[in-house]
Input
Amino acid sequence: MLVGHGGRVFRVMNRFLSNATNRIDAKGRVSVPAAFRSVLAERNIQELYCFQDFVFPAISVGGLDLLDRFERQIAAEDPFSPAANQMSLLIHGGGVFMKLDAEGRLMVTDFIRDFTAIAGEVTFVGRADHFQLWRPEAFLALQAQAREERRLAGRRSE
Output
């Protein structure tokens, strides 16, 4: 989408990219980065679906389309199969709905803190169609590990 501002035209991105770290305020809220709020607006995401990531100590955040994608995977399985039950435990049992306040802040609840060990700051990490909430030190360590593993494997950006 193209938008105009002051006689200039800018492209508004529709993917969550990059990362940013913000402080949690005294009331337990954190400001979602402006670039991420722009993507939420562009994609018309008003209610956030949040779930505990399957691999990383992070909370994944997206719109209803993210939940729908997982529910389609569950529906493709035999409803009584271990795979469908495990996926439901992770997606439904490990998920909540949240909303940003009028200033674009997210409440850092026990659901987030208990799973991630987030304390004073939150690192927001873009993951294309969703973003994640990380404890800053955990993100930096795992990003460095991923970079080193790619380097050792001789892979750059295949």
Notes: Confidence is low (pLDDT under 50) at residues 1-5. The two ends are 28 Å apart (CA to CA). The domain at 16-152 is CATH 3.40.1550.20 (Chemotaxis protein chec). The chain is about 35% helix and 25% strand.
